[in-house]
Design goal:
about 400 residues, alpha/beta, VC0802-like, 7-stranded mixed sheet, about 20% strand, elongated
Length: about 400
């Protein structure tokens, strides 16, 4: 079936009251960005739904992209028919032949915005219902939970028919909840946290710590590829790589073994805080899950969080590992995450890290180090890469921004 239009229904936007128009505007922008490869489209956002006129563009390709845009509850590919009931009948029979197998149950649901049309809502339902009962005796009318719902929308310019409803990604339009940075490792958890942040409308930028020569170029490429896995949901993501070698070597040389992880994490969080402020972000996201490793006990979080007052949001904090893995598999980051490239979170890891580090001791051990100098040199070495999509990342060089703001 050659479809002419896609009707997009909003998700949580229906609860936004006076802010609804701003959310719809943001969603319209995100959809336009996601569909930039289809220049023939006409996108018309309205208060109750958004219409995408295909104008000959590939409907399946457009629908594949729409499924990755947050803020969409569902959408329906539709056929456009002139407001002539003879032509409507022909197209109804053609559409139902393709989408309603023999023996299916059905109902007709009409929405009429053009009140000048000759048939009202009930009239359209009865007219088309009678047609199908006569021409398709193998079908049975069923008003509750039918196999096929034939949706008829009578608009000023034409009548639109649809029988398919495809679930969207849900959530809120990316950017509608503000901007944050995400501390991205090479593991399973942080990409899932990034996905969940995007789903709640947060525009994220990735902060990744790397420690050459202890971490390889493969490990850095893996982190960029994980970022690329999330770009279809937003269009592009900034990847901020922070050199961490000097800090890790200094901490290893000057801090007791049990506190190595705690002090390293305090430095990471300080740097994330500094980057967030420079990038005008409102929060720091990470992939910590309570109790999963030594640095993620509540006591460790207290000792590490001490260095910032910025909100730290942990989307996977109360999920167990199997739940996190399930999401990672769904968003296609799991196989990449388990590739065995060391990241800076695993090198220099002590065999017996403190699970209940003392805050005063953490401050004391850290005070012996050149905190300001170490932080400034790391900030001076930052590079920012804009990653646009998985395919572009694999086949083309990224744009590298040499200055942080």
């Amino acid at each position: 079936m050659q479809y002419d239009m896609i009707m997009v229904r909003y998700g949580e936007l229906s609860t936004k009251g006076k802010n609804r128009s701003a959310f719809i505007g943001r969603l319209n922008g995100n959809i336009t960005k996601a569909l930039h490869e289809y220049p023939g489209l006409t996108i018309r956002p309205k208060r109750d739904r958004l219409h995408i006129e295909l104008n000959g563009e590939d409907s399946q390709g457009v629908m594949d992209r729409l499924q990755q845009v947050f803020g969409i509850q569902n959408f329906s590919p539709s056929v456009k028919v002139p407001k002539d009931m003879t032509l409507v009948h022909e197209k109804v029979l053609e559409l139902m032949k393709e989408t309603a197998p023999e023996g299916s149950t059905f109902k007709v649901a009409t929405k009429r915005s053009d009140h000048t049309f000759e048939l009202d809502t009930n009239g359209m339902n009865l007219d088309i219902g009678d047609l199908l009962t006569e021409e398709r005796p193998d079908l049975k009318v069923q008003m509750k939970h039918p196999d096929v719902t034939l949706r008829v929308e009578v608009r000023r310019e034409a009548i639109y028919l649809s029988t398919t409803t495809i679930q969207g990604a849900g959530g809120l339009p990316v950017g509608s909840a503000g901007k944050a940075v995400l501390m991205l490792s090479g593991g399973i958890d942080s990409p899932v946290a990034g996905y969940l942040a995007l789903k709640r409308g947060v525009d994220i930028e990735m902060v990744h710590f790397f420690s050459p020569p202890y971490t390889s170029e493969n490990a850095l490429a893996k982190a960029k590829q994980l970022t690329a896995k999330l770009t279809p949901y937003v269009g592009s993501i900034k990847f901020i790589q922070v050199p961490f070698t000097e800090i890790q070597e200094t901490v290893k040389a000057g801090v007791p073994e049990g506190y190595l992880m705690t002090i390293q994490r305090r430095f990471m969080l300080r740097l994330a805080d500094m980057i967030a402020h420079k990038r005008h972000a409102l929060a720091i996201f990470n992939g910590e899950s309570v109790g999963q490793v030594a640095s993620q006990t509540l006591e460790s979080m207290v000792a590490i969080n001490d260095v910032t007052t910025m909100p730290i949001i942990r989307p996977v904090a109360t999920m167990d590992k199997n739940e996190i893995i399930k999401v990672a598999e769904d968003i296609d980051t799991y196989d990449l995450s388990i590739m065995p490239f060391e990241d800076c979170c695993t090198i220099f890891a002590p065999p017996r890290p403190k699970t209940k580090p003392n805050l005063d001791k953490s401050r004391y051990y850290e005070s012996k180090l050149d905190i300001d100098g170490l932080l400034q040199r790391a900030m001076d070495g930052i590079e920012i890469t804009e990653i646009r999509s998985s395919d572009e990342f694999m086949n083309a060089e990224q744009d590298v921004i040499s200055e942080l703001l």
